[in-house]
């Protein structure tokens, strides 16, 4: 007879405008029967171990169907990247005991029907399991594809990274340093600035909240101008960077976390710099580069094992802490990649 | 003894903000001795036949030294592209009677000291001399380099061109049609829209001044979305185009004529579309592609001679008409490429 267990869930309550609040989500305790998935369903039943908090999830809280990913369904559990352990499987690619990463529910146990985009993890003592939603997951791959493929870097170039201690930025900066670039990062607290300079190896870093005139700030850190701006924030920082780009500069537009909370984003006024300096500004999604994923996994795992890069996580304990952890992203509370530990293996 | 002649000139009076006015320029009649240039100077003395009115000249009227080209000098003649005939030469590359194109003064006769960027014209009865500042000059080459090199077109793609009947836009649209694209243009009058549809071969065209909601307009003309936007205007049209781009679209940022007159440009609010649709937005200057100039001249001359493309000029007679013709650019008065005929050969 099937085992019946409690299944705590974080439910999405309904569509929102502006910054997410904890009250937009609801903790519910359901029950779940740990039955094998129906025969022929190809589904797997998993126990979730780690859940990832990512800014893009905010986009799924709006009632907007024109994006690359559909909105959440009110009344159902949130969905996001996770690391899970297979309990039952109707899929020949996965067997009980396997570790997988990919989209899962914000709950203790999930039935995953769409298994095509899951990735099996081969546990490695040298690499924490949770890194598969960070350094070796979507954020890490975003940094990798964005830096190498969108920024077209050259050795010795001047690189600026915003939200530089975040899930993506911290790897962009380290890859740029390994590539031989000069790297400056911005972040929103003294603690983060210290991490950038002392732990992540950035050449310089500043706290944007203490700067009155971002144009002057960038002039100070880049008297010769910026070759590459890896933009994780949009808004005023993007506008200031446009003024400080060098000829033939490249801007990778990766995120606009400063703008996610605004129903009408702030205007960008310095677009004309694209013309006079021949700047390429390119938005991208890591999903456009999935053919590079195997190479990324190999290279970045190897860098990590060799101690050439580090990766900072902000780990919250328990599914209950999920809503606060997610909301914290939009207030810069997380220091490093925000993860929720749902269960110890 | 040297011949002494009247030399009418259009002088630049002083730095301005906002839209240029005729009163920012001054007509002056000087005298000039048609002496051979000093020996060893490498200079040439020319009689100017055609002068080109180009929006980029507005940038040289500001007291701003950070651009790719220095500002005009108050009290001196304006400078711009022209077609001229050599009268005297101290340069072995040019002899009296040669026709040349390149930077010259807004005056009847000019002493040209910087001859490196001049181009000798080989007169061809099938191609009007004035086309060397239009179809075969900087605007035509801007269209050519921008369309082929920046837009990376594919056959069958949906192309939108703003300021489509202008010096650059009219060629972009025709090149795109020859390439097998579907092409829609915007312009600012019924007359221009008629030209686009009936003479220049655009699939569709609209008068942006009659449209209340540019987003809805573009949705109507591009129900499937835009693959390539060749942006000659910036501002609201760029913002509306961003909303209507397809995934992996490309925006060539060529000009921002709608913004040239504003001391503070309007904001662009839809930059986040770059991310969700993986759009590349690239500013460019034709001068970055000069290695393609010979190929451009050959191909576009050949298209023209075969009747595959046409080119519309707006010809003003006499240097006196220069200031009004130039100012007219910023009010959309010109229909086609604005040229001033200074003298008949």
Automatic annotation (TrEMBL), chains A, B:
Keyword field: Oxidoreductase
Residue stretches in coiled coil: none
Annotated GO MF terms: oxidoreductase activity, acting on the CH-CH group of donors, NAD or NADP as acceptor
Transmembrane parts of this sequence: none
Listed InterPro entries: ADH-like_C (IPR013149), ADH_N_2 (IPR041694), ER (IPR020843), GroES-like_sf (IPR011032), MDR_fam (IPR045010), NAD(P)-bd_dom_sf (IPR036291)
Protein's UniProt keywords contain Oxidoreductase: yes
Enoyl reductase (ER) domain: residues covered: 22-340
Matching SUPFAM superfamilies: GroES-like, NAD(P)-binding Rossmann-fold domains
Protein name, entry field: NADP-dependent oxidoreductase P2
Lineage: Eukaryota, Viridiplantae, Streptophyta, Embryophyta, Tracheophyta
